[in-house]
Amino acid sequence: MRTIVVGGQYGDEGKGKILSHLALADKPEIVARGGVGPNAGHEVNYNGKKYPLRLVPCGFVYEKAKLMIGAGVFVNPEIFFKEIELIGGQNRTFIDFRAGLITKEHIERDTASENSKKIGTTKTGCGPAVSDRVNRIGRMVSEVPELKKYLIDVPKAVNSSQNVLIEGTQAFMLSNLYGTYPFVTSKDVSASTIAADVGLGPTKIDDVIMVIKSYTTRVGAGPLQGELSVEDAKSRNMQEYGTVTGRPRRTSPDLHFDDLRTAAMINGAGQIAITKIDIRFPGNMGVRDYQKLTNEAKAFVSDVEKKLGVPVTLIGTGPDALDVIDRRIRN
Ligand code: GTP
Ligand code: IMP
Ligand code: MG
Predict the structure, then answer these.
(1) From the CB of 9, is ligand 2 less than 6 Å away?
(2) CATH number, domain containing residue 57
(3) Residue 247 domain-assigned?
(4) DSSP result, 53-118
(5) pLDDT-derived band at 331, boundaries 50, 70, 90
(6) Is 6 within a domain?
(7) Any domain includes 331
(8) Rounded distance, CA 199 to CA 192, Å?
(9) Full-model pTM
(10) For residues 276 and 301, is the Cβ–Cβ distance under 8 A?
(11) Are 4 and 195 in contact (CB under 8 A)?
(12) Which of 25, 86, 90, 112 is 20 to 30 A from 283 in CA distance terms?
């Protein structure tokens, strides 16, 4: 199987946790990451340890997987070296030799620009690095001697393996094409682009899992229907803080079904994963068997399936990689 995992809302749906579960359950030969770059923050909780990751794939928890960063991803070498050390992945982590580089100057531009301030970017230099690449003046990972030994041909690897987990970052509503433009990130991040980022053609993808959280959060500027005050979000235990920037996330207790239907359609979602069901419906923390969910939580899952017309096959019930109900039908 080659499966792509994408976010269906504004990011921070808990993709990191779903990806870590999938890696442990499916034992992929390769976990490959697409998306923009270190503007992403995925948090993996495994064996009592927290791993905040911005570049390296979350599927690292399966120790036999080779970890790859696709050509479409922009790399900050400092972050890359820190993360391979954190996960002990020096011998199994690779970058496509065509990937673009993020420099200090990109970060300075992202920090100083008035437009970046208006959008509320992550100030990680991703936008300026993408724009330089579009203008054909981008810097490349191949210019950095310390990275040389990690550079490979990712498309060759992922096309020659039958068991690949592909990690999308950001999320549909932040897509430069389909999101709430101009309050978006600097690339499209729907499943088709994630496939292209790692060098897989559309006929080579078996499935797309779209991850949604049981409520909605957003960091940075832009519209958010049904936004709660910080006090209200706190009283519902829904107040979150960003993995990359530490900024408080904005919260809406609702799922925005019109947006989610569009997201499911354009991503070609074959399955939905819902996270944080235990936060929306207390009493479900750590449940790993569907039958043990409360009736309220089960009704919510059925309602999502009915409204989106896509089966909910994975349900997150707690922070640990193993706190998941997995209802996938596998051969
Ligand atoms: P992505 O950017 O989508 O990877 O998500 P993220 O890692 O930024 O998500 P977030 O920061 O919101 O998630 C961080 C914390 O939520 C981590 O500690 C996760 O383990 C935890 N988490 C993920 N899924 C669940 C869940 O179903 N229930 C609970 N209680 N926590 C979860
Ligand atoms: P940029 O991608 O840093 O240019 O930021 C553009 C917008 O996308 C800002 O609102 C960011 O907060 C948001 N953003 C970018 N990446 C992520 C992510 O991984 N999770 C959540 N929001 C993100
Ligand atoms: Mg995140």
Answers:
(1) no
(2) 3.40.440.10
(3) yes
(4) ESSS-GGGGSTT-EEEE-TTSEE-HHHHHHHHHHHT-TTTEEEETT-EE--HHHHHHHHH-HHHHH
(5) low
(6) yes
(7) no
(8) 10
(9) 0.97
(10) no
(11) yes
(12) 25
The residue contributing the CA closest to ligand 2 atom 11 is 121
Q: pLDDT, tens digit, for every residue of 149-160?
A: 999 999 999 999
Total domains in the chain come to: 1
**Cα distance between residue 49 and residue 236, in whole Å:** 26
Question: Which pLDDT score, from 0 to 100, does residue 62 have?
Answer: 97
The boundaries of the domain holding residue 96 are 2-326
Ligand 1 pocket check for 13: Cβ under 6 Å? yes
Q: Letter for the amino acid at 125?
A: G
What are the pLDDT digits (tens) for 282-299?
A: 999 999 999 999 999 999
- CA-wise closest residue to 33 among 203, 164, 133, 132: 164
* 150 in Cβ contact with 77 (< 8 Å): no
54: which 2 tokens? 């911005």
Hey, whose CA ends up nearest to atom 12 of ligand 1? 12
Contact predicate 145/77, CB 8 Å: no
